[in-house]
Design goal:
Layout (H helix, E strand, L loop, with lengths): L3 H20 L7 H26 L20 H10 L21 H8 L15 E5 L4 E4 L4 E3 L3 E3 L3 H8 L2 H7 L4 E12 L11 E3 L9 E3 L20 E2 L15 E10 L10 H11 L8 E15 L5 H14 L2 E3 L13 H17 L4 H4 L1 H5 L14 H10 L30
Parallel strand pairs: 4-11
Antiparallel strand pairs: 1-2, 2-3, 5-9, 5-10, 6-7, 7-9, 8-10
Helix pairs in contact: 1-2, 1-3, 5-6
The protein binds flavin-adenine dinucleotide.
InterPro entries: FAD/NAD-bd_sf
Protein name: Amine oxidase domain-containing protein
Organism: Coniochaeta pulveracea
Length: about 425
């Protein structure tokens, strides 16, 4: 619960925002303006600005607002005020109120199962199958082991900046420098003991504060009993959360529980990679997620170089040049970083981006997910199933003619020259 003074600041800001909303007749120029218009200064300063900087690793003023689409409803000020006075928790948690998660093998299990539906001889996982060169003129892809694969149309899911480099196309490489991304560190901590009651059955928690490096903690052991060792599995304690040695190095039984943490990184938000695991464990203590004497039985740290595709102010101007240029060469660049649109960059979206690219190649069907993010994000897909055939003749044309697809302003921004602070130099990270 926020301190009373902060509650007042939040309500004040919400009232100001609601009043200003009545007279505003322009769209917010950036994400920061959007936040101010939606929530006002109190919520902006206490949560939205610090939290979003922790997630995106760029200030909210450097991000556009279109990625949020039309789907985020303005807060109901009356409801907020009555909830604050009555000390009530808001009831409606939106589309994530309930969700499905695989009992075994995590999310990766889904994609291994999908991959298993493909014939073995068509798969080239590993270094030998990595794409080293794309020759768009000869329509030839060279793989790590030197083999070449010819194509008519190419669906690419590697990051579009890396594709440009593999193509050796200077124009595309230059354009791609206007796209920004942040890196993501994923940290896992396995603990001995029963999951504390103060955490309860929560699935994930958000942390805008600066007393911990992570912006989100996921309690993976709450998702499935198979996400942690069984109670009778014996594991030694690596060390205590406060860094001290455990009293004994003997392997002991559980129970166990586990936490996954996410930390963003960019040159605007550097991270001490060497000490990140240690800093995260200290952050868990600072936020009272764990206690200093808790026994740590396992740790995990992995960095994803391309973590989040930033919805920067420049993004649409770049994509609107790059994607059509590639398409003219028969290349469909799709996926989280293939088409670089965060709002359609989750797993379900990325899968459909691929499905629809192939549908477009085979049947000329409209690529809804790529081109109409607001439309796909506001409805459930009930018509296109992996295990069922699809009648493109009627459904595809119905989707584009009888349903009123919302238009999206996409032409506004021009590619701006990389501006010292924010531009990506080379293909590594936000500068
Ligand atoms: C920290 C984090 C949390 C996330 N949480 C969620 C979540 O809760 N829910 C959700 O739905 N999504 C989540 N996502 C997003 C999810 O991971 C992506 O939507 C999904 O992985 C995108 O799939 P993709 O195929 O487009 O790209 P990727 O999964 O990035 O696949 C691209 C593939 O291309 C390969 N590749 C690159 N270069 C080459 C080359 N030269 N040759 C051959 N192969 C190459 C890469 O190795 C990679 O396997 C999260 C992502 C991150 C980073």
């Amino acid at each position: 619960m926020l301190p009373k003074e902060d509650q007042v600041k939040c309500v004040d800001g919400l009232i100001d925002a609601a009043l200003e909303c009545r007279v505003a007749n322009t769209k917010p120029k950036n994400f920061d303006e959007w936040i101010m218009r939606m929530t006002g200064e109190g919520v902006a300063n206490i949560f939205m600005r610090p939290y979003n900087f922790k997630v995106w690793a760029v200030p909210t003023t450097k991000m556009q607002a279109e990625w949020l689409g039309e789907r985020v409803a303005a807060p109901d000020v009356k409801k907020v005020v009555s909830n604050v006075i009555l000390n009530k928790v808001a009831g409606n948690w939106g589309p994530n109120a309930t969700f499905r998660f695989p009992a075994r093998d995590g999310t990766g299990g889904i994609w291994i199962a999908v991959s298993n539906t493909l014939p073995e001889e068509k798969k080239r996982y590993g270094k030998h199958g990595a794409v080293t060169r794309v020759d768009a003129e000869k329509k030839l892809v060279t793989l790590g082991d030197g083999t070449t694969v010819g194509y008519g149309k190419l669906v690419n899911t590697m990051a579009i900046d890396q594709l440009a480099e593999k193509m050796g196309n200077d124009e595309l490489v230059q354009l791609s420098k206007g796209l920004y991304y942040s890196s993501t560190h994923v940290i896992g901590v396995g603990l001995r003991g029963a999951r504390p009651d103060r955490i309860g059955d929560k699935c994930w928690l958000y942390f805008p504060e600066d007393n911990c490096p992570f912006y989100r903690a996921t309690i993976f052991s709450n998702y499935s009993p198979y996400n942690q060792p069984r109670d009778d599995v014996k594991l030694p304690t690596l060390y205590l959360a406060n860094g001290q040695k455990a009293a004994s190095s003997e392997a002991k039984e559980g129970p166990y529980w586990s936490i996954m943490l996410e930390v963003s990184q960019s040159t605007m938000k550097p991270v001490d990679e060497e000490n990140l695991l240690k800093d995260c464990i200290q952050g868990l203590i600072n936020t009272e997620m764990i206690m200093p004497e808790d026994e740590i039985v396992s740790t995990y740290h992995r960095k994803f170089d391309h973590g989040y595709p930033t919805p920067s102010l420049e993004r649409e101007g770049v994509l609107k040049q790059m994607l059509p240029k590639l398409l003219d060469m028969g290349i469909y660049s799709r996926g989280r970083f293939g088409s670089w649109r965060y709002e359609v960059g989750n797993q379900d979206h990325s899968f459909m981006l691929g499905v629809e690219a192939v549908d477009n190649i085979v049947n000329g069907a409209v690529e809804l997910t790529l081109n109409y993010p607001d439309f796909v994000n506001s409805r459930a897909n009930t018509e296109r199933r992996l295990d069922a055939s699809f009648d493109f003749g009627s459904a595809a044309s119905k989707a584009t003619t009888s349903i009123n697809i919302p238009t999206r302003e996409r032409s506004g921004s021009k590619v701006s020259a990389p501006n010292g602070l924010h531009a990506r130099q080379g293909s590594k990270s936000i500068q």
